[in-house]
Amino acid sequence: MRWLQRIGVRWLGRKQPLPKLIMVGIDTHCYQLAQALIQQREADIIAFIDDEPWTNRTELLGAKVYYPSDMVALVMRNEVQLIVDFAQSNMVPESIKAELEALPVQQLCLTEKATGADLALWREQVLQCLASSK
User: Fold this and answer.
1) Cα gap 112→93, rounded to integer Å
2) What pLDDT is recorded for position 2?
3) Which domain holds residue 102?
4) Which SUPFAM superfamilies does the record associate with it (predicted)?
5) Which of 14, 68, 94, 133 is the most buried (most CB within 10 A)?
6) CA torsion angle for 69, 124, 104, 96 (degrees, to 10)?
7) Tell me, what CATH number does 57's domain have?
C-alpha cells in the first residue's frame, strides 16, 4: 500500500513528504492519535511498537508492529523524525532509549488519558514538535 502512496505523491505533485513517526504502544489512545494524524494527512506512521510477541509483525493502520529492540534500525532506515510515547509506557528499555538519544530523532512523551479533548491536545503537541524539528 505504501508504494501506491509514493506513486500518488509523485503524480499529484505534493511538495513535501509527510513527517515520519513511530508510535510506542498499540492501545486505544495510540490508535486514536495515529488515526487522527493519518486522516488529516499530517504524518506518516512508520511503525507501532509493542513488546507482546503475538502482535509482532501484524499491521495496524497500514503500519507494522515491531518490538522495542527494532526501534533504532527503524529510525535509521526510515529517517523517522519523531517517536511518540506515553507516560505510562515502560516498553522501551533504558539501553534502547540511550541509543535513540544519539540519533537525530525527537522523542515526545504524552500524558495518558482517553478523552476527546486529550486527543486534540496530543495532536497539537505532535504537530508543534514536528514544526520545531524543521
Assistant:
1) 19
2) 58
3) 17-132
4) S-adenosyl-L-methionine-dependent methyltransferases (SSF53335)
5) 68
6) -20
7) 3.40.50.720
Whether residue 95 is contained in a domain is answered as: yes
In angstroms, what CA-CA distances link 2 with 9, 46, 61, 62, 134?
Answer: 11, 10, 11, 8, 24
H/E stretch holding 85: strand 82-86
- How many domains is the chain built from? 1
Nearest Cα to Cα of residue 34 among 123, 129, 133, 106: 123
On whether residue 52 sits in a domain, the answer given is yes
The whole-model pTM stands at 0.84
Residue 7 makes CB contacts below 8 A (sequence gap 6+) with none
In a domain, 72, yes or no: yes
Domain presence at residue 27: yes
Give the model's pLDDT for residue 91. 87
pLDDT higher than 70, residue 47: yes
